[in-house]
Amino acid sequence: MNIVGNGRGAKLYSSSYWNFGGAGNNYLYDFGGVCVASATDAYEAADVADPLSRGSGATKLCKYKGATGVSSRASSNGPNKGCMDNPLLPLTSNKTDLNAKINAMDAGGTTNLLPGFMWAWRTISPNGPFTGASTPKPYGTPGNAKIIVFMTDGFNNWSSNSGYAYKSEYNALGYYVNNRLSAYGGVAFPPPTGSPTYDGPTSSNNWRMQMDSALLAACANAKNAGVTIYTVGFSVPSDPIDTEGLQLLSKCASSADHAYVARDSSSIVSAFNNIGSSLSKLRLVR
Questions:
Q1: pLDDT band (50, 70, 90) for residue 24
Q2: How far apart are CA 16 and CA 128, in angstroms?
Q3: Cis bond before residue 129 (omega within 30° of 0)
Q4: Claim to verify: residue 243 and residue 201 sit in the same structural domain
Q5: Range of 267's domain?
Q6: Mean pLDDT within 212-236
Q7: Are 19 and 137 within one domain?
Q8: Alpha helices, DSSP H, located in the chain
């Protein structure tokens, strides 16, 4: 460890200090990158003034610029720790590419259903971000159906961290204190189960219902745009999806017969075979 002067007295730094609150993101040395070890530095002043960071260095993004070893999912340093680096495959009819992409998938981390669903929708949306040869056709194009097959083996998870100023581990939705889901879980966007009283600031008491409610809203928006949604819950006895999670998938699907629950490997194959048959019939009818 070492001691660095910052114009406000000496500050102690060590690897345990950089891993601020044990929140799954090992922060770098606060005066690395392009940061300046001076009380007059704008980044330092802003971090001190931040009501949550309070000089801890949590907001000092300058430490990442020009630094090494911070952009790899395998690294223990920086904001990309644990992130997947396998890019999405835009729309294609190339079966070889599709199989290669599926075989290259890498499971890890916890379950966050909303980002997964939204990226599935983006791949078939004519509104971006996929353009050029992979630009999807407009909604309502004759002879074109927009379909999402949404599979998960779990339910929403967002670990709390009460000893950390930001109150949670970081994920695609940020931290609890960012309140990016504060509009969900109430009367306007109710959860799949329970009373709709979970909107407002995100906390360890309401994050699950807010995440579930946000996904339901996304599913409703996609269906209203003309997207057909199939859901597949892979719920094995040793690691089941709970009742709320199954209800969430059922309500996300276009109808009851579009929602599948697979309890073992053979039933998941059967579920996808049934979906394939349904899509073939849809194609013939249209």
A1: very low
A2: 42
A3: yes
A4: yes
A5: 95-285
A6: 97
A7: no
A8: 15-18, 42-49, 95-103, 113-124, 207-224, 243-252, 265-285
Residues 95-138 have pLDDT tens digits of 999 999 989 887 777 899 999 999 999 999 999 898 877 789 99
Strand pairing report for 10-13 and 146-152: unpaired
What residues contact 276, with CB distance under 8 A and at least 6 apart?
none
Q: Both 128 and 255 in a single domain?
A: yes
Instruction: Please give the structure tokens belonging to residue 197.
Output: 């009283």
One domain, residues 19 and 126: no
Last residue of a domain, one of 40, 63, 86: 63
- What 108-112 contacts at long range (C-beta under 8 Å, 24+ apart), as own/partner pairs, is 108/82, 108/84, 109/82, 109/84, 110/154, 110/157, 110/158, 110/159, 110/171, 111/152, 111/153, 111/154, 111/155, 111/156, 111/157, 112/156, 112/157, 112/158, 112/171, 112/172, 112/173, 112/211
**Residue 259: is its pLDDT beyond 80?**
yes
235 and 278 housed in the same domain: yes
Q: Among candidates 40, 44, 41, 63, which has minimal Cα distance to 55? A: 44
pLDDT average, residue stretch 241-260: 96
pLDDT at 16 over 50: no
Q: Token pair of 281, please?
A: 């019939």
Q: Which long-range contacts (CB under 8 A, 24 or more apart) does 10-18 make?
A: 11/55, 18/57
Q: Give me the number of domains the chain comprises.
A: 2
- Selected residue with higher pLDDT from 15 and 51: 51
